[in-house]
Description:
Elements: H1 5-17, E1 25-28, E2 31-34, E3 43-46, H2 50-61, E4 67-70, E5 82-84, E6 93-95, E7 101-102, H3 106-115, E8 119-123, E9 128-132, E10 135-137, H4 140-144, H5 163-172, H6 183-202, H7 215-225, E11 231-234, H8 239-251, E12 255-257, E13 262-268, E14 271-276, E15 280-281, E16 285-288, H9 292-295, H10 301-307, H11 310-313, E17 315-326, E18 344-347, E19 354-356, H12 361-366, E20 368-374, H13 377-389, H14 391-405, E21 416-429, H15 437-445, E22 453-455, H16 468-483
Parallel strand pairs: 3-4, 3-16, 4-12, 9-18, 16-22
Antiparallel strand pairs: 1-2, 5-6, 7-11, 8-11, 9-10, 13-14, 14-15, 17-20, 17-21, 18-19
Amino acid sequence: xxxxxxxxxxxxxxxxxxxxxxxxxxxxxxxxxxxxxxxxxxxxxxxxxxxxxxxxxxxxxxxxxxxxxxxxxxxxxxxxxxxxxxxxxxxxxxxxxxxxxxxxxxxxxxxxxxxxxxxxxxxxxxxxxxxxxxxxxxxxxxxxxxxxxxxxxxxxxxxxxxxxxxxxxxxxxxxxxxxxxxxxxxxxxxxxxxxxxxxxxxxxxxxxxxxxxxxxxxxxxxxxxxxxxxxxxxxxxxxxxxxxxxxxxxxxxxxxxxxxxxxxxxxxxxxxxxxxxxxxxxxxxxxxxxxxxxxxxxxxxxxxxxxxxxxxxxxxxxxxxxxxxxxxxxxxxxxxxxxxxxxxxxxxxxxxxxxxxxxxxxxxxxxxxxxxxxxxxxxxxxxxxxxxxxxxxxxxxxxxxxxxxxxxxxxxxxxxxxxxxxxxxxxxxxxxxxxxxxxxxxxxxxxxxxxxxxxxxxxxxxxxxxxxxxxxxxxxxxxxxxxxxxxxxxxxxxxxx
Length: 497
């Protein structure tokens, strides 16, 4: 895409020349909100997730005036969402969406330093307990013995002698990759049905093997994701990023309007018309920091033209359910039959699917588990249907599944349970659409050509999908090309042909 430097410089000059409007804010549990009018907004940010708040923060930092952010919820952060300690020991909050970053995500670690966010825990390895095909083991290679065809893979070149590494090396070689192929089909073609079954059975994220995403786009992402280093847990949870950016944005003059859904985004001769239930504003620039799922729920010709584009239609959202539970005692510390504690449980024998014991100090104090984290479409549907009946039904089913998985353990009743359903937690590119990850990211910066509207967020940056970094990278790209606000960031690996 062309940078249109002259046009952007003019826009930026106009924005910087606007009079700073008096800003009033009040603190709430959800963040900050504005009590001043919004009729004079020069820049409107629709959506207060990570990308929207980051954009507001950077515009305030650059002293851009007349910036307004509208968020339909009573809180900021989107999928970066934590809840109060619901009856566990100690105090604090627990993330029910994004929980951590990786130390190799330089842009986010740099942002943490800038915001003075500390990390309480650094986790470099996990004790994974597998319950697969009737086998209970802490070794993936032991599990692999149940798949006779996998004996042909020579694992001697891998320091872990891990069959999984051998299979992924085969996949990442791309030697049987064809254009337009779905990733699940490619896996079967490259490593056979037993290779597919083994990866499915031992995967934490089974949606990778269920959704019809483009194989090449997924493999390009995998090259980025393969070795990002240790996990880092921020003090105060992932929402600490949101809270600190929101405070600085509001302090810099950005007006934040919570509980105010944008209903329509329309183009008019003077720029755009934004309609909410409370007001109409006419900005010159619009930044749509809304997920693809959320964008489809907004009316107006601007959104209609974007959502009707082939780029937008190529996005595949992954539905996810998380179930968080607080306990009176740490029963998982001796839950395995041999008395060994586990960090993560991975099983195909029930829709527990993937469970996390407390991995950070705050969670350990609260005795809180992420008992279910599932993107397996079948299991997500099962938990959703049960939750529609009642949360009590969910708790009873979990109690039964946990006891069956750990028959030797004395599993107490949970103190509390939180069920979170994400309609589309992250996005991939659909197979057969002929777009690369980079194509989508470039298109999103100015999806309507010369019109001064931009899409930012994880939805539109599949090169970094599944991580909050995707939202920040997308927002930084938009800020650079629309407002010439440049921030150094790490590029995704160059896509392979």
